[in-house]
Each structure stands twice: as C-alpha cells, then as structure tokens.
Design a protein that fits this description.
This protein is α+β, with helices and mostly antiparallel strands and about 280 residues long. The chain is built from 12 helices and 8 strands. About 40% of the residues lie in helices and about 20% in strands. Strands 2-1-8-7-6-5 form a 6-stranded antiparallel beta sheet, sandwiched between helices. Strands 3-4 form a two-stranded antiparallel ribbon.
C-alpha cells in the first residue's frame, strides 16, 4: 500500500513520492499499458487526470502522474468525509435527519437551483449535492473539529484559513487525486477514525450504480474558484473478486467555454474503466 500523500510536504519530498509512484505504475499489466488514457480527455477537449488503484494487485494506474499528485480544492467530493464527521460529532443522528433550509443562499457562488431550496434529509442533500445543507452542518461542526478529524484521517493539507464555512469550495484547502483514493480506501476498509455505523450510512448513500456484476459508490464535485473550474468524480467499483478505486479530476479556465465539462467527468472515467475491463 502506498502511504497517504502529505500535500503539505516540501518539493523534494513530493519528488520522491512521484518517483515511487512511477515505479508502481510501471508494474501495471501490459494490456493496460497499451491503452491511451489521454484520448478521452482529448475527446472532451479538457485537461486533467484519472487515477486508479487496483486493491487486489496493489497497482496504481495514472494518465498523468504529476497531476495525480497535485492538490486542489475537493469541492463536493468533500461530502464523503464531511458526512462521516457530521455523524461522528452528532450534528446529525442519521441519514434521515432533516436539515432546515436557512431561507436563502448565495446564488452567485453556488448557482440558482430552486429545486433544492427546501428542508431535506442528509441523504437527499448528499444525493442532490445540496451545498447549502452541508454548509449549515459545517457551521455547527466548527473548523477546530474539522481539523481534528482531517488530521487524523490524513486528508489533504488541512488549510481551513478561508473565512467562509465552505472551505472545501473556496480558499487554500486542497487534496490530490492520490490522496482522494487513500481516503476512499479508508472508507471501504473502515480504517478511518469513525464509527462502524457511520461507514454503513455513508456507503449506502454513496451508491450510484448497482448491477449483478458490480456496485459503484461515488461522488461528483465541481467548484469555481480563482478563475478556474475544478471538476471531480471519485469513488470505487466493487466486484466479487476485487475493488478498484478511482479519482478523475478535470481543470479549465473559466474563460474557456466547454459545455461538456460537467458530463465529461463521468464520461471520461467510464470510458477508461471499460477499456481496463473494470466495468
């Protein structure tokens, strides 16, 4: 197992981590090595990377090693660990607890989404990616509690210095795709510092696709900060004989118009997972 990436490490340490990751990626199967992992990004006319970890074979696959280790804002993918923290701190007692609509939200920051402007359960807030609901929970949790759990989980750089409560969408808080996968593995194996019931609730909420062959547990994310769009789709594919973790991140300048940005997060990932015979 590759140790979690410390996104606060110095340049020299990061270079060492990248060299280790290169050595691991060299071990991927020859059939996987022949696949052009960059083509789906080119087809979408977008930059970014897909990072995959094969649990059974203990192998990493990356379309861009440097990007896989570069930290950015997690956006709504933070709802994964945010849910665990909210449950652990008893801010919510379960997935059906109702979160009260505060009456207004910043539509300039979050866009206009009237379909989510109402009281809702945490389950609905997760599924609908209702940012306002998690901001309301964050106000109660407080940044000191966040720091405690994020440090214990080795999640990102733990820079919560931005004044706003939604530090996962704006500011200097950041996590790399490799680190995202380490967190996902901690969720799957239930090794993060949270109660078993919290994992049970989260895992059920994360289900996006369930077939006879596999189950996908995942979360999207998209934030617009510092003149850039950052889009994510992270999660894991559970098959009977193996588990595959993935973290896809897309980046573009906000001045670059690309109406496919949102849907390409999943389209790129699915294409690559199919080519690797994971789906």
């Amino acid at each position: 197992m590759l140790n979690p990436i410390d996104d606060t490490s110095k340049t020299g340490s990061m270079k060492n981590v990248i060299l280790i990751l290169i050595a691991i990626i060299v071990l991927i199967a020859p059939s996987s090595a022949q696949i052009n992992l960059s083509k789906p990004f080119e087809d979408c006319n977008l930059k970014g990377s897909v990072t995959i970890y094969d649990l059974k074979e203990k192998k990493w696959i990356s379309s861009d090693i440097i990007d896989s280790n570069s930290p950015t804002l997690p956006a709504s993918t933070f709802k994964i660990i945010n849910t665990l923290i909210a449950l652990e701190t008893n801010v919510v007692s379960g997935e059906e607890q109702i979160i009260k609509w505060p009456g207004s939200t910043d539509t300039i920051k979050y866009g206009y989404r009237p379909d989510i402007y109402h009281d809702m359960s945490m389950r609905e807030a997760f599924k609908q990616s209702a940012g306002w609901a998690y901001v309301e929970m964050a106000k109660v949790i407080g940044k000191e509690q966040y720091k405690k759990y994020l440090k214990a989980s080795h999640y990102g750089n733990v820079d919560l210095s931005v004044a706003d409560d939604d530090f996962w969408n704006f500011g200097n808080f950041a996590i790399s795709p490799v680190n995202q996968i380490e967190i996902l593995r901690g969720v799957y194996e239930e090794t993060l510092p949270f109660k078993k019931n919290s994992f049970k609730i989260l895992k059920e909420m994360m289900i996006e696709t369930k077939t006879k062959a596999y189950t996908i547990r995942a979360k999207t994310g998209w934030t617009r900060d510092d003149g850039k769009d950052t889009g994510w789709w992270i999660g894991y594919v559970e098959r009977k004989d193996n588990v595959y973790f993935f973290a896809t991140r897309l980046l573009k300048d906000r001045t670059d118009i690309n109406t496919n940005f949102g849907k390409c997060r999943k389209e790129i990932t699915v294409k690559i997972l199919k080519e690797l015979h994971i789906l």
